[in-house]
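Data card: per-record layout.
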Amino acid sequence: MLVRLIGVLFIVASILELGLYWAKCAFAKPPLAVAVVPCMLRLIPAAIGFAILIKAKAIAEWISNTLDI
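The structure for this 69-residue chain is written out next.
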């Protein structure tokens, strides 16, 4: 469950960062164009989050085996 929560938090943080970037561009005087490269850089954590969600069970088992004493 913790691994899934971390994956979702990566996605939510990425969406929030993208929204803040859009707001910064939209409310500037004069309004700035939203560039593709900064958007892609801000979406990297979302891609990591989706990868974590896809491999959540394997990651959880790996962490469990690693911390098993």
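Known properties of this structure: DSSP finds three helices and no strands in the chain. The helical segments are 2-26, 36-54, 56-67.

See the next section for split statistics.
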